[in-house]
Write a structure and sequence with these properties.
Order of helices and strands: EEHEH
Distance between the termini: 70 Å
Radius of gyration: 23 Å
Strand content: 25-35%
Number of strands: 3
Largest sheet: 3 strands, mixed
Low-confidence stretches: none
Mean pLDDT: 78
Shape: extended
Strand order of the largest sheet: 1-2-3
Amino acid sequence: PRYYLFNFNHTHEGVQMFSTIFIYSCPGYNVPVKQRMMYSSTKAAFLAGILELGIEIAAKREISDGEEVKENDVYDMVHPAKHVSRQNFVKPKAPSKGGRRLIR
């Protein structure tokens, strides 16, 4: 397992930007359970230490293989697509009780 801080240099809407991405890599079952648990349990303390240093983390990602990280995916993590129209929730119709019945 590893922690990575990736400085992502990119252009967004014509502006040059630098974003810091936190990536937690744990290669699945190739690593002993004790080591995976240690890295998982110390992740929050590591991130708190990074924030105390004044480093702003734009996005966080957990991966098991380096092939999972592509430039387009990182860009979408930092600048998620905005939905132009959002559908409102339509409350379902209450079930009818049907006609009344006489019970003897």
